[in-house]
Amino acid sequence: MRSRCAMLCAAALALPGAAQADETRLSADVSTALGYSNNPFSLVGDDTGSAYAEFNVRPQLQILTERSVFTINAGAQIQQYFKHYSTSDSYQAGLHYAGHPREYLTTHLNAAFLSSIVGSLNNFAGTVVDPAQSSGTGEGTTTGTGTVGTTPVTTEPLNSGTDVALFGTRARQRTINVGGDATEALSARDQLTGSLFFLDSRYSQSSSFGSLDNYDGYGGSLGYARQLSASSSRCAGQRGALHL
Hints:
Structural class: mainly beta
Number of helices: 1
Number of strands: 9
Strand order of the largest sheet: 1-2-3-4-5-6-7-8-9
Radius of gyration: 27 Å
Mean pLDDT: 75
Distance between the termini: 26 Å
Shape: elongated
């Protein structure tokens, strides 16, 4: 987590104008809460509720210069459940930049890092017995007469779905999201805008869903706008995006 914050701070200092701050603002929000959820992780069954204690801290550093505003933020959220579930936590860090490197150029940049536990399920639903195969006792037999017994069959927990975001098995998800745009005013009535984004999401090895849940996404757009008159305008642009 510390290395991620250091990388974001270094990126901020590398951007134009960050080294000559006219004003610096530092703040932090800290909060605690007690609550109760009757089914925090969408399980199937009875008695799925639990009380919990929550702690949040969100520091923020804002750097203002003549032509730019940089915002560096971080955050941590920890939820401790009193029964059924393990601790759920998430951590994040981010950088936002908005500036005017030149008189007619406006730019934005966003970078964010998030690490969180998906689900807090410790096999809570247990195992269920298939009633169709639970008659009799002992080992099954196919000869002779009388009652045919079978060993009760245990199956997967009822909540073993395929949506890792909903039925997470305490796998940690790490997401990096970077995006930016720039708008150049070509004239009093013409402007050109371009944007790019990149998204990278990975799950820890403990995920029972395997690497199929990992994905990348990236894309961009380029657009041109012209104001024909005081009350009308014409826009043309191209967009492209790809998710893997």
